[in-house]
């Protein structure tokens, strides 16, 4: 089943050159944070280019439930009338976060230090994902939680009445955990400190500073130390959301493996904590260039041009790069199938607890399409067959995971036989215009007749 309705079976077939401009949606991470921080600010925050995928729409609905006035003005233009730090009202109903692990974990952090109670749920995929990694540090502030066995949703959080500041070392690289702790620290007196051994995406720190919070970041022997001074008055902002690098990866990777392709993807956020996949692709021999490099809203941005690259080589991806490209490993594994030699990906155990077990989902689907894959607890190796040598022909399972679904559709664009997908419905959570955008470039992605 799709996360928001009946399954949508799809087929992707080998196509001619992909050409044109791919205007991908706004960045999902920044869209979530814009709504949440806008709700915690004083005054009206305006947002242009908000990603209107289901994940972000669920976060907008949640902010309304906590008392903020969230308005859709059309065309990606939104506004949020905030309630201020500590101003959240107690929701009247259960908060349904759909498929979004980012949404639910950040919202839990934002409410954890207010004296209110809220119950969270989601779809089958989200309700199977572990939440203890969030609720454990939130308990240090004084927040209580009760959920299903294994710390799973549905779950009720009782916010701390008198929160205490926390010093927390993040046990695994996770921007969601770091961000939840920092958001909880907003309504906590004193200084909240987060230490991460490996840098993860830093949108929360950047945006907190932009909203007027006192945030310092220091690189030490112990890692990256982020210190937040609590109980600031966040000031409303105007935010232009850059286009999502995770979404950009799909037309970029498709262009690299489809003969004759030349695709421009404009206005992509190239925050160094997010752009690891593009560095990796270039190391594999991809014809991928950055044009018109600039800065917008404190984030580095560029236009990406991707051209067909027939001589891709497998490489060993540095494990320390994993945090900067964790969501892109599924589609990278597709490119690896068309490369010569092995592509080795290590230090990626976080993929096991995403919307699905992404290592297992991709390994199973790639094997069914004629690709040799080895995998272990925190690693996997794809043995590429080279340009034009991927058999295809299988039906793949999306496992309610948007990135798995899109990755297999990219695979079909250059394989010998069509690749089918059991359910493309989850794609709408992050990239609602994926089908028309890829079709406009020349891809043959179709919905199967019912």
Task: Please give a structural write-up.
The protein is α/β, with parallel strands linked by helices. Helix content is 28%, strand content 27%. It is globular. The protein contains 12 helices and 24 strands. The mean pLDDT is 95. Helix 1 (28-40) packs parallel to helix 2 (54-65). The chain has helices at residues 28-40, 54-65, 101-111, 132-141, 175-186, 203-210, 245-257, 276-283, 329-337, 358-368, 402-412, 434-441, and strands at 10-13, 19-21, 44-48, 69-72, 78-81, 95-96, 117-121, 144-148, 152-158, 167-170, 191-196, 215-220, 223-229, 238-240, 262-269, 287-296, 299-307, 316-317, 340-346, 372-376, 379-385, 395-396, 419-421, 444-447.
List the keywords.
single chain, 450 residues, alpha/beta, four-stranded mixed sheet
Total number of helices: 12
Structural class, judged by helices and strands?
Answer: alpha/beta
> Helical amount among residues, as a percent range?
25-40%
User: Can you tell me the residue ranges where pLDDT is under 50 for at least 5 consecutive residues?
Assistant: none
Mean pLDDT: 95
Beta content: 25-35%
> What oligomeric state do the depicted chains represent?
single chain
The first-to-last residue Cα distance is: 14 Å
In total, the number of strands is 24
Q: How would you sum up the global shape?
A: globular
């Amino acid at each position: 089943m799709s996360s928001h309705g009946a399954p949508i079976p799809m087929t992707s077939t080998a196509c001619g050159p992909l050409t044109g401009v791919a205007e991908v949606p706004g960045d999902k991470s920044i869209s979530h944070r814009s709504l949440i921080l806008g709700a915690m600010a004083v005054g009206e925050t305006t947002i242009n280019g908000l990603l209107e995928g289901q994940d972000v729409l669920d976060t907008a609905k949640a902010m309304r439930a906590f008392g903020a006035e969230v308005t859709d003005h059309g065309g990606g233009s939104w506004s949020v009338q905030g309630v201020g730090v500590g101003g959240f009202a107690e929701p009247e109903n259960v908060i349904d976060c759909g498929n979004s692990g980012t949404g639910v974990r950040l919202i839990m952090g934002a409410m954890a230090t207010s004296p209110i109670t809220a119950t969270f749920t989601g779809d089958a995929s989200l309700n199977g994902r572990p939440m203890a990694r969030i609720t454990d540090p939130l308990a240090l502030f004084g927040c209580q939680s009760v959920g299903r066995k294994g710390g799973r949703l549905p779950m009720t959080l009782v916010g701390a009445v008198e929160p205490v500041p926390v010093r927390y070392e993040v046990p695994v690289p996770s921007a969601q955990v770091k961000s939840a702790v920092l958001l909880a620290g907003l309504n906590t007196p004193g200084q909240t400190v987060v230490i991460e051994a490996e840098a993860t995406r830093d949108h929360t720190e950047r945006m907190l500073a932009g909203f007027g919070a006192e945030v310092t970041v220091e690189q030490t022997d112990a890692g990256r130390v982020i210190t937040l001074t609590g109980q600031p008055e966040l000031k409303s902002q105007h935010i232009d959301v850059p286009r999502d690098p995770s979404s950009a990866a799909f037309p970029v990777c498709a262009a690299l493996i489809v003969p004759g392709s030349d695709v421009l993807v404009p206005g992509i956020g190239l925050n160094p904590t997010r752009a690891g996949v593009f560095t990796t692709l270039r190391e594999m021999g991809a014809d991928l260039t950055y044009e018109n490099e600039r800065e917008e809203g404190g984030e580095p941005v560029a236009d990406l041009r991707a051209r067909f690259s027939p001589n891709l080589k497998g490489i060993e991806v540095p494990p320390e790069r994993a945090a900067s490209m964790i969501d892109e490993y599924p589609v990278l594994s597709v490119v690896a199938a068309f490369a010569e030699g092995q592509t080795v990906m290590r230090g990626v155990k976080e993929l096991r607890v995403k919307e699905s077990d992404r290592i297992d989902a991709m390994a199973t689907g790639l094997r069914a399409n004629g690709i040799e894959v080895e995998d272990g607890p925190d690693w996997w190796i794809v043995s590429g067959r080279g340009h034009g040598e991927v058999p295809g022909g299988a039906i793949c399972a999306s496992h309610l995971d948007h990135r798995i679904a899109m990755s297999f559709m990219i695979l079909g664009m250059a394989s010998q036989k069509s690749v089918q997908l059991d359910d493309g419905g989850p794609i709408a959570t992050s990239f609602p215009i994926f089908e028309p955008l890829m079709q406009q470039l020349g891809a043959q992605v179709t919905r199967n007749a019912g």
